[in-house]
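Next comes a concrete protein, fold included:
___
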Amino acid sequence: EVQLVESGGGLVQPGGSLRLSCVASGFTVGNYYMGWFRRAPGKEREGVATIAIYGRTMYADSVKGRFTISQDKAKNTLYLQMNSLKPEDTAMYYCAADRIDWWFVAKYNYWGRGTQVTVSS
């Protein structure tokens, strides 16, 4: 059974950093296309960053240069390093995985329950 469990969210001041983790089970990270999505209150779910099985990474324009997606195959974990956080980054962040490359389309087959990130002074 495929499971994704996110952690690492919290309250951080503008300009601060957080690292989100997504522990995968039931499959091997690196063999699936994976991504991070977020949903802010009153807004649609949006893609933040994705990583392909061959290592290609993609970022939303709003996070380029500030966020980095990576994976640790030994720990079977996907990460999202978030630096220079802004209030508009406040959202529930979700990890997603699939055998198909959905890029930023939210049609991934597997989703975690999310971790809340709040950026506020």
About this structure: Residues 50 and 56 are 8 Å apart (CA to CA). The chain has a mean pLDDT of 97.
